[in-house]
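Researcher: Good morning. I'm working through a list of sequences from a screen, and I'd like to move beyond sequence-only analysis. For each chain I'm collecting a predicted structure so we can compare shapes side by side. This is the next one on the list. No need for commentary yet; just the structure.
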Amino acid sequence: MKTLMLSCLTALTMSSSIAIAADPAIGVWETGLDEGRYSHVKIGQCGDKMCGTLLRLFEEDGTPVNDGNIGKTILWDMTPKPGGKYRDGKFWRVFDGKTYNGKMDMLGSQLKVSGCVMFICAGQKWNRTE
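Model: Good morning. Structure tokens for this chain:
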């Protein structure tokens, strides 16, 4: 009986540890400059995919801005793939209101994001802030 209880406790602990292990993209990321502004984006899990919300927006000099977009989802449907890659997602660009097909790649402590609309593509490297 003791062995059975110990086995159950071990299995429960192991499954909890697996659930607690966070995806490396989860957290708050500072974007690169875009149209003289940068932002902080909070990335988390949305079901089995990743999504991101605009947390803060700043002028190039660090002055906070609230243009009505704080709290909006700006990336969604990023499907985690092996090797720190995320594919098949979408980005909404605050400055032009366009939605881009996107992908993300973990590069050490940075997140390389890129998006394309039609044949126009752009990318940035984001740095973790939290």
